Amino acid sequence: MRVKVPDTEMYAYPDISVVCGKAILKDDHMDTLLNPVVIFEVLSPSTESYDRVAKFAHYRRLATLKSYVLVSQEAPMIDRYDRGDDGQWVLSDCWGVDSSLQIPSLGISIPLAKVYENVDLPPDHLSRQPWAKSD
């Protein structure tokens, strides 16, 4: 579903958007969400920079947004940004198929083994940070 950031007039199609409670839609077409609580973007080499910087700058203007989650296609690695009570965004990351993604704003935990279950990853990327040297 398309998401609109009213403050910047930006429209985007996140890979996943989550609403808690009733969805607020822009118009009668019922195709534009105004109140996501969590947005997920799956990173690709061609869009990673835009998703991390420019798109996130727009999404941060959504008063309802509590978490922004960036999922790597290259390795079992997920970055999660959470808006604190003071309005500041805090980065948490998890990596390796043995870890789990915690999403406090939803009260859930998702095992990375499930997220990457059908993704063909190099064996040396399964349980360590991809930039770490192997033994």
From TrEMBL:
SUPFAM superfamilies linked: Restriction endonuclease-like (SSF52980)
Source organism superkingdom: Bacteria
Transmembrane segments: none
Domain Putative restriction endonuclease residues, every copy: 2-109
Protein's recorded name: Putative restriction endonuclease domain-containing protein
Organism of provenance: Fimbriimonas ginsengisoli Gsoil 348
